[in-house]
Amino acid sequence: MNWFPCKVCSAHEPKKAGGEINATVKSVSFGTLCGVDSRERGIRHRPYMDESEKSDPVIQLNEVFPGDTNALNTLFGGRLMSIMDTAAGMAASKFCSEDVVTISVDALKFKRPAYQGDIIRTIARVVWTSPRTIGVHVTSCRLSRKEWNPEEICSGFFFMVAVDGSMKPTEVPQFTPNGEEESRLYNMARQARDGMRADGS
After folding, report:
1. Residue 34 needs a FRET pair 20 to 30 A away by CA distance; which of 14, 51, 69, 150 works?
2. What's the DSSP call for residue 93?
């Protein structure tokens, strides 16, 4: 368990009993911990997420309901795009700690259908950045409730721009690929984005 020490008082510190640490943890806001507004006192608590975790993948699970399917009982392509776009936005926002908007999507490759009752597992990871744009690689798989073996159904690149409170683009941290696979996806995303710019998108 990660312990977030409060510098105002020691009332919430865990107590040792018989060599073990006993702590009562309640769901409280950092801003009101110990009854003190930390923003007014100028107190900064250690962030919950380390910088190295910001580029970790986002994994999202969705069930395919009757309203998500067409007359053939397969998942609408538009619904799948919405799921993937949501996951991409989460990954980009986690990476830059800002609100993001989608500016473009690379040609998605629909490989096989998903059916009513399937579970859609979507994995989104940041793989490329420019000063104000974040490239996210998104892969969706279907999982049958009988077998639970993932089958990839779609993949592609989503490009996001971070925006401030006035909806103006803002700069983002830069992603550095680590390893062969990340370098491969980085180059693919860069090529996809360059191609979109050449087409005026």
Report:
1. 51
2. H
Q: With beta carbons less than 8 A apart as the criterion, state whether 153 and 108 touch.
A: no
CATH topology of domain 51-198: Thiol Ester Dehydrase; Chain A (3.10.129)
The label of the residue with tokens 């990839």 reads: 152
The C-alpha atoms of residue 181 and residue 187 are separated, in whole angstroms, by 10
- Cα separation, 127 vs 157, in Å, equals 9
**What average pLDDT does the chain have?**
82
Residue 70 token pair: 């067409």
Separation between Cα atoms, residue 159 and residue 6, nearest integer Å: 39
H helical segments located in the chain: 38-41, 77-96, 180-198
Looking at residue 198, its pLDDT comes to: 67
Q: How far apart are CA 120 and CA 75, in angstroms?
A: 10
Question: DSSP per residue over 22-38, as a string?
Answer: E-------GGGGGG--H
Which residues of the chain does CATH 3.10.129.10 include?
Answer: 51-198
Report CA torsion sign: 65, 66, 70, 72. Answer: positive
Assign 48 a pLDDT band (cuts: 50, 70, 90): low
Residue predicted with more confidence, 178 or 9: 178
User: 183: Cβ–Cβ under 8 A, 6 or more apart, which residues?
Assistant: 177
The alpha carbon of 10 is separated from its chain's Cα centroid by a whole number of angstroms, namely: 35
